[in-house]
Design brief:
The chain is α+β, with helices and mostly antiparallel strands. The chain has one domain. The protein has helices at 22-31, 90-116; strands at residues 8-12, 41-46, 52-58, 63-69, 85-88. The protein has a five-stranded mixed sheet with strand order 4-3-2-1-5. It is globular. The model is unreliable at 104-117 (pLDDT under 50).
């Protein structure tokens, strides 16, 4: 799991073109969000279908680009509105990353409960 301790976490509301790599995402952070991609922060982006996630992270001498693709389910993701970005706590980030598993787990429990009756 990603270490989010002592880092600010910025989530890009709405969807992002997942063809963008490090340079494209860093340009969004600087241009659209008016933030420094070289800071102690994680920048989280999601695609239109909400089944792919990219996290841009600077570690002091280079960028990390974390990528997750879901085989089932989708991430709970805020729509783009007046806000282009929002800050998350570590706990909120863990919930966001775990939301597809939580939804699937709840569905399995509901099926068991219905078949037992």
């Amino acid at each position: 799991m990603l270490n989010t301790r002592d880092k600010r976490i910025y989530l890009a509301c709405g969807y992002t073109d997942m063809r963008k790599s490090i340079n494209g995402l860093a340009a969004i952070v600087e241009g659209s969000f008016r933030l420094d991609p070289f800071g102690r922060a994680l920048f989280v982006f999601c695609n239109r279908n909400r089944d792919r996630l990219k996290i841009l992270e600077w570690d002091g001498d280079g960028f990390w680009l974390h990528f997750k693709r879901l085989e089932k389910g989708h991430f709970k993701w805020p729509l783009a509105g007046d806000e282009q970005t929002m800050m998350l706590t570590s706990e909120e980030m863990e919930y966001l990353l775990g939301s597809p598993r939580l939804t699937q787990k709840l569905k399995r429990q509901e099926i068991r409960a219905n078949t037992a009756i």
